[in-house]
Write a structure and sequence with these properties.
With about 350 residues, the chain is an alpha+beta fold. It has 3 domains: about 1-65 and about 310-348, Malate/L-lactate/L-sulpholactate dehydrogenase, four-helix barrel (Hypothetical Oxidoreductase Yiak, Chain: A, domain 1, Orthogonal Bundle); about 65-180 and about 220-275, Malate/L-lactate/L-sulpholactate dehydrogenase, NADPH binding domain (Ribosomal Protein S8, Chain: A, domain 1, 2-Layer Sandwich); about 280-305, no CATH class. Helix content is about 40%, strand content about 15%. The chain has helices at about 5-20, 25-40, 50-55, 85-105, 120-130, 180-190, 210-215, 225-240, 275-290, 310-320, 325-340, and strands at about 1-5, 70-75, 75-80, 105-115, 130-140, 160-165, 170-175, 200, 220, 260-270, 320-325. A 7-stranded mixed β-sheet has the order 2-3-4-10-5-6-7, sandwiched between helices. The protein has a two-stranded antiparallel ribbon with strand order 1-11. α1 (about 5-20) packs parallel to α3 (about 50-55), α2 crosses α4 (about 85-105) and α2 (about 25-40) crosses α10 (about 310-320). The protein starts with a strand and ends in a 10-residue tail after the last helix.
Length: about 350
């Protein structure tokens, strides 16, 4: 199904309002989800309505979301997400971090007691568009084994870095510390398709192409020991330092086993405090052009800058419509039917 951003956002908003969210918070979350779908990152998009719906029915999500600053001290702060929607806590955190960076040059804002916050690039790019460099991380329920282990201890613990470039297209990297985000394995399981044999192991520690077996086993860290080290660091900063849950204490957002306790961290740098944005933009533009102009490796006809593929995909899909696969559209329509709302209809 191809659906416009406006219609998809309206459907998401209706469901969130029915769940007890405020109009403002529902709009924030809908934009977060729909832009993820537009970027082709369905695992962080409107698909998340299903676990939100299930958690609300199980009374394991506190709506409306009442995210607040539980600590505010100069250049640093902590956002308490109040066990509500992660997008709302993330929105408060990035706005706070940007304001503080403009005052102090550098800011650090942590998040605790929240839930799935969606694509980290959604937040980092907000600040990068305003002349900043941003580093963001988030922990998650145990699904990945530290390098050398055969037991799940860490989440996929994504890390995102975005930078102002002086143009609409940013430098924007957003990546899980596992070889692949667990959401892609869940999607493969829903679609009934096999996965590559280097993504995960089964319960016995054997490499598997069966997504259902992989979901019972463990993910493998990207870059082996290097990805494992970064994932551990993410848990230390986003979990331990923020006061959130960490390692196996985190609960999966996709089950109803209790509060997830997710934590996140934002470090924001205001470029103007170091050099003019104009000077920086000229330097980074030239830098990225040199990267693009490098000799191509065998099998490559273009060198992509981090975030480039998602940027053009979002730009195109915001104009032409957002693709939802049959399973995703059916899941949303089932909830819409339950609340007495009109179903999604694709663009003609």
């Amino acid at each position: 199904m191809i659906i416009s951003y406006e219609n998809l956002s309206l459907a998401v908003t209706k469901i969130l309002l029915h769940c007890g969210e405020t109009e403002e918070n529902a709009a924030i979350t809908a934009d977060n989800m729909c832009r993820a779908d537009a970027r082709g990152i369905a695992t962080h998009g409107s698909y998340l309505l299903t676990p939100i719906w299930e958690r609300c029915k199980a009374k394991q999500l506190t709506l409306p979301t009442r995210a607040v600053l539980s600590m505010d001290n100069g250049a640093v702060a902590i956002v308490d997400g109040a066990d509500g929607l992660g997008a709302v806590a993330g929105d408060l955190a990035i706005k706070t971090a940007m304001e503080k960076a403009k005052t102090y040059g550098v800011s650090a804002v942590l998040i605790k007691n929240t839930n799935n916050i969606g694509c980290l690039a959604y937040y980092t790019e907000k600040a990068a568009k305003n002349g900043m460099i941003v580093i963001m991380s988030c922990n998650a329920a145990a699904a990945m084994a530290p390098w050398g282990s055969a037991e799940a201890f860490l989440g996929t613990n994504p890390l995102a870095i975005a930078s102002y470039t002086g143009s609409e297209q940013l430098f924007s990297a957003d990546m899980a510390m596992s070889i692949v985000a667990r959401g892609k394995i869940r999607k493969a399981a829903r679609d009934g398709v096999a996965i590559p044999n280097n993504w995960a192991t089964d319960e016995q520690g054997n490499f598997t192409t069966d997504p259902n077996a992989a979901l019972k086993g463990v993910l493998l860290p990207a870059g082996e020991a290097k990805g494992s080290a970064i994932a551990l660091a993410v848990d230390i900063i986003s979990g331990i330092l923020s006061g959130a849950s960490y390692a196996p204490d985190l609960k999966s957002f996709h089950s109803t086993d209790g509060k997830t306790g997710v934590g996140a961290s934002l470090i924001v740098i205001d470029i103007e405090k170091f050099q003019s944005k104009k000077t920086f933009a000229e330097k980074i533009t030239g830098y990225l052009k040199k990267v693009k102009d490098l000799k191509k490796a065998k099998g490559f006809d273009e060198i992509k800058i981090p975030g480039e593929i998602e940027y053009f995909k979002e730009k195109q899909n915001m104009e032409k419509g957002i693709f939802l696969d049959d399973n995703a559209a059916a899941a949303i329509n089932e909830i819409l039917k339950t609340i007495g709302a009109d179903p999604l209809h694709g663009k003609q």
